C-alpha cells in the first residue's frame, strides 16, 4: 500500500516543481522587479529624509525614472543620468545668472535648451539618448523653481542634485544586490539563439523548405535582433569585467552577422531570379554546392549551439572554402563546354556563394571566440552606427521648445502658483514621450496615470498620513500604492499609464521632511501636471506627428540614401555604416508601421533592394580601387567611364526613383557589362583591342578581378529587374526583357 501511494505522488510533486519553476521564470521575475523597485524607492526616501534634504520625494521619483528589470540598464541609465544632471545643472545656473530678472528671456532660453536636448535625444540611441533627455529635463527641474528665488538658486540646485544622486545610488544598489538580473545572461542567450536560428534558416532556404512570407518575417526578426543586441551590449559593459572583455567581439559578431545575412539574402534572391528566367543549366550546376552547406553546421551529426563547439564549424567552413575555387573552375569549364549555360549568371552566383561562405566563416569564428575570456578578435574598431533623420530630430526639438514657450507664456500671463510645475513637467513629458514610437499615445497614457495618481495621492496625503507615525508605517502605507504603478509598467500595453502614475504619485504625495497639508495647492499642482501632459499629447498629435506619412517618406528616403552613399561616399568604414544604418532605419520604420502589414512589407522590400544594390556597388568599388596600375585599368578608359556612369545612374535612381532614371540605370548597366566583357575578352586576344596591348599574358588574378567586376555589374542589373523589387513600379517596358544582356555571356 505504501508503495502504491508513493508512486503517483512523485509525478504530482514533479508537476508542482515544474509549475513553480515556470512561474519563477515568468511572472516570478515581475514580482521580484516590483519588490526591488519599491524597496529602492523607500530606501532613497529614507536616506534623503535622514539627511534632512528639503524634497526627499525627488529621490524617490528618480528611482522610478531609472529602475529597470536588469542591472545593466540601471547602471547605464544612472551613469548617463548623472552626466545629464551635471550638464543641466551647469547650463541652468548660467541661465539663471543671465536672466534672473527677465522671466520672458529665461523661459525662452530654457525652452530652447530643452528643445536642443530633445533633438539630441532623438538623434542618438540607447542610453546616450537618455543623457540628452536628462540634460534638458534637469535644467527645467532645477532651474524653473530656483528662478523664483535667484538668491538661493545655487543651494537649491545643489540639494536637488544630491536628491537625484541618492535615487540613482539606491536604484543601483538594490538592483545589484537583491536578486540581480544581468543583461550579460540575456546577451549570451540572444547570441546563441540568433546563431542557431540563422543556421536553421540558411539550411531551410538552401533546401527549398521556406516560402517568401517566412523569409520576410525571419529577416524582420533578424533586424530587431541586430538593434536589440547592440542595445544590450552597450548596457552590459556597465555590469561586469567579463562583459567588457567581450564587448569588442560582440560588436564584431553583430557586424559580421549583418554582412553574412545580407550576402545570403542576395544569393537567395539571385537564385530565385535564375529559376524564374529558366536558367536551368546554371541552377542545376549550383545546387550540389548548396546541399553541402547544411552538414558543415553540425558536429558529429548534432547541431552546434554553443560557442565552444562553434570552432569546429569554423574549421569545417574554412576547409570547405579552400576547395571551392578549384571545384568551381571545373564546373564552369563543364558548363562552357556544353554551350547552353549563361556563364555570367554562373559567375555571379558563385561569387556571391564564395563571399557568403567567407562571411559565415568569419561570423562563426567570432562566435567561437566568445568561449574564452581574451581573444585576438576582440581588437575590433568598427561599431554599430545608428541612423536618424536630422529633420525628424529637429522637429522633436522644435515641438518641445514650442510647448514649453506656450506654457511659459501662459504661466507669466496668469501668475498661476503652480505654473512652475506646468512648465517643468511639460519638459519632462516631451523628453520621455519623444523616445516612444507613439509619443501622443504615451503622453496621453501618462496623463491618465497622473489623474489616477492624483486621486490616490489625495487619499494618502489627507486621509492616511495624518494618522500614522514613523518611517516604518510610512513604508507600509506607500508600498501598496506604489506597487500598482510598478505592476502597470511591466505590462507593455499600460506602460505609459504606469510611468505617469509612479513618477507623479511620488511628486504629489511623496512626503517631505516638512509635510504641508494644503488641499488647494495640491489640486493646483495636480491640474498643472495633467494640463502639461494634455498639451504635450496635443502637440505630438498636431505638430508634425511622428506617425504621419511625412516621417515615413523621410525615413524611406534615408534608407534609399544608403545605396546612394554606397555609390558615392568614401570607402573607408562605409560598409559598416551602410549595413547598420539600413537596419536602424528599418527598425524605426517598423515601429512607425505598427500592425500595418502592407507598410511593413513595403519597407522590407526597400530594405532588401537597398542592401542588395548597395553591397554590390561597394564590392564593385572595392575591386576598382585595387586594380593594378596599368593603362588598361586607368580611370579614363572607356570601360571605367561606363562603370562610373553606372554607379552614378544607380545612385540617382535611389536618390529619387522615377521611370526615366530607372531606364537610365538599366541602360548604363548594360553598357558597363558589355564594356567590361570586351576588356576581359581582349585579355585572351590582345590584338583585338588597342587598350589591351600588354606584350604578355595578364595574370590569372587580374582576369578573375575583371570577372568579379562583371559579376557585380550583372547582379546590380538582376536586382533592378527583379519583379519583387519596389523598383519594379518604375520599370514600365524597360524591364520587359530580363535576358537582354545575356547574349554576350556565351562568348565569355
Automatic annotation (TrEMBL):
Membrane topology, record value: Multi-pass membrane protein
Compartment(s) where it occurs, according to its Swiss-Prot or TrEMBL record: Cell membrane
Alphabetized InterPro entries for the sequence: PHBA_efflux_AaeB/fusaric-R
Keywords: Cell membrane, Membrane, Transmembrane, Transmembrane helix
Membrane-spanning residues: 30-51, 79-99, 105-122, 129-146, 166-187, 390-412, 471-489, 494-510, 522-544
Protein name per Swiss-Prot or TrEMBL: Membrane protein YccC
Species, as recorded: Paraburkholderia unamae
Lineage: Bacteria, Pseudomonadati, Pseudomonadota, Betaproteobacteria, Burkholderiales
Amino acid at each position: 500500500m505504501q508503495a502504491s501511494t508513493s508512486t503517483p505522488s512523485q509525478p504530482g510533486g514533479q508537476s508542482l516543481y515544474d509549475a513553480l519553476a515556470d512561474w519563477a521564470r515568468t511572472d516570478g521575475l515581475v514580482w521580484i522587479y516590483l519588490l526591488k523597485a519599491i524597496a529602492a524607492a523607500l530606501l532613497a526616501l529614507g536616506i534623503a529624509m535622514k539627511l534632512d534634504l528639503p524634497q526627499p520625494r525627488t529621490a524617490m521619483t528618480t528611482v522610478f525614472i531609472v529602475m529597470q528589470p536588469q542591472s545593466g540598464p540601471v547602471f547605464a541609465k544612472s551613469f548617463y543620468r548623472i552626466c545629464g544632471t551635471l550638464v543641466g545643472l551647469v547650463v541652468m545656473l548660467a541661465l539663471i545668472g543671465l536672466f534672473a530678472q527677465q522671466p520672458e528671456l529665461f523661459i525662452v532660453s530654457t525652452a530652447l535648451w530643452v528643445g536642443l536636448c530633445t533633438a539630441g535625444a532623438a538623434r542618438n540611441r540607447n542610453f546616450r539618448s537618455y543623457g540628452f533627455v536628462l540634460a534638458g529635463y534637469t535644467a527645467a527641474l532645477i532651474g524653473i523653481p530656483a528662478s523664483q528665488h535667484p538668491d538661493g538658486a545655487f543651494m537649491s540646485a545643489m540639494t536637488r542634485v544630491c536628491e537625484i544622486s541618492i535615487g540613482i545610488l539606491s536604484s543601483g544598489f538594490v538592483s545589484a544586490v537583491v536578486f540581480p538580473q544581468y543583461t550579460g545572461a540575456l546577451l549570451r542567450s540572444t547570441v546563441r539563439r540568433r546563431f542557431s536560428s540563422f543556421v536553421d534558416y540558411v539550411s531551410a532556404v538552401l533546401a527549398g523548405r521556406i516560402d517568401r512570407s517566412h523569409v520576410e518575417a525571419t529577416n524582420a526578426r533578424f533586424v530587431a535582433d541586430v538593434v536589440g543586441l547592440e542595445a544590450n551590449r552597450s548596457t552590459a559593459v556597465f555590469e561586469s569585467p567579463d562583459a567588457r572583455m567581450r564587448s569588442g567581439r560582440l560588436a564584431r559578431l553583430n557586424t559580421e552577422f549583418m554582412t553574412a545575412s545580407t550576402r545570403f539574402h542576395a544569393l537567395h534572391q539571385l537564385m530565385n531570379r535564375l529559376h524564374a528566367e529558366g536558367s536551368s543549366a546554371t541552377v542545376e550546376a549550383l545546387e550540389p554546392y548548396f546541399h553541402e552547406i547544411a552538414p558543415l553546421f553540425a558536429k558529429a551529426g548534432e547541431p552546434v549551439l554553443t560557442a565552444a563547439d562553434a570552432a569546429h564549424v569554423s574549421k569545417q567552413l574554412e576547409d570547405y572554402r579552400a576547395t571551392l575555387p578549384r571545384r568551381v573552375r571545373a564546373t564552369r569549364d563543364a558548363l562552357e563546354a556544353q554551350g547552353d549555360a549563361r556563364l555570367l549568371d554562373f559567375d555571379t552566383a558563385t561569387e556571391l556563394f564564395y563571399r557568403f561562405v567567407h562571411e559565415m566563416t568569419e561570423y562563426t569564428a567570432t562566435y567561437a571566440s566568445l568561449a574564452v575570456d581574451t581573444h585576438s578578435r576582440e581588437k575590433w574598431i568598427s561599431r554599430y552606427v545608428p541612423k536618424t533623420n536630422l529633420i525628424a530630430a529637429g522637429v522633436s526639438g522644435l515641438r518641445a521648445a514650442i510647448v514649453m514657450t506656450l506654457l511659459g507664456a501662459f504661466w507669466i500671463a496668469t501668475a498661476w502658483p503652480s505654473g512652475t510645475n506646468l512648465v517643468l513637467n511639460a519638459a519632462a513629458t516631451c523628453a520621455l514621450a519623444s523616445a516612444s514610437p507613439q509619443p501622443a499615445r504615451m503622453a496621453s497614457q501618462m496623463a491618465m496615470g497622473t489623474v489616477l495618481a492624483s486621486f490616490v495621492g489625495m487619499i494618502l496625503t489627507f486621509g492616511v498620513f495624518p494618522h500614522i507615525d514613523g518611517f516604518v508605517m510610512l513604508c507600509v502605507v506607500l508600498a501598496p500604492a506604489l506597487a500598482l504603478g510598478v505592476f502597470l509598467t511591466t505590462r507593455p500595453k499600460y506602460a505609459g499609464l504606469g510611468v505617469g502614475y509612479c513618477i507623479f504619485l511620488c511628486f504629489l504625495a511623496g512626503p517631505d521632511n516638512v509635510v504641508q497639508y494644503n488641499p488647494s495647492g495640491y489640486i493646483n499642482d495636480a491640474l498643472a501636471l495633467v494640463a502639461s501632459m494634455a498639451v504635450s499629447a496635443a502637440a505630438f498629435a498636431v505638430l508634425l506627428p511622428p506617425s504621419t506619412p511625412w516621417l515615413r517618406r523621410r525615413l524611406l528616403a534615408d534608407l534609399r540614401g544608403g545605396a546612394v552613399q554606397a555609390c558615392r561616399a568614401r570607402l573607408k568604414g562605409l560598409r559598416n555604416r551602410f549595413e547598420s544604418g539600413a537596419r536602424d532605419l528599418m527598425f524605426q520604420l517598423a515601429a512607425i508601421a505598427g500592425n500595418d502589414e502592407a507598410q511593413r512589407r513595403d519597407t522590407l522590400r526597400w530594405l532588401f533592394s537597398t542592401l542588395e544594390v548597395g553591397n554590390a556597388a561597394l564590392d564593385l568599388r572595392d575591386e576598382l580601387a585595387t586594380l593594378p596600375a596599368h593603362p588598361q585599368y586607368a580611370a579614363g578608359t572607356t570601360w571605367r567611364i561606363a562603370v562610373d556612369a553606372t554607379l552614378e545612374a544607380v545612385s540617382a535612381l535611389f536618390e529619387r526613383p522615377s521611370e526615366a532614371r530607372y531606364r537610365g540605370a538599366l541602360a548604363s548597366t548594360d553598357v558597363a557589362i558589355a564594356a567590361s566583357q570586351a576588356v576581359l575578352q581582349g585579355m585572351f586576344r590582345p590584338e583585338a583591342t588597342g587598350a589591351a596591348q600588354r606584350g604578355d599574358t595578364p595574370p590569372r588574378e587580374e582576369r578573375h578581378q575583371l570577372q568579379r567586376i562583371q559579376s557585380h555589374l550583372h547582379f546590380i542589373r538582376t536586382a533592378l529587374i527583379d519583379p519583387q523589387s519596389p523598383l519594379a513600379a518604375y520599370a514600365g517596358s524597360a524591364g520587359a526583357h530580363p535576358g537582354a544582356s545575356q547574349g554576350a555571356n556565351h562568348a565569355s
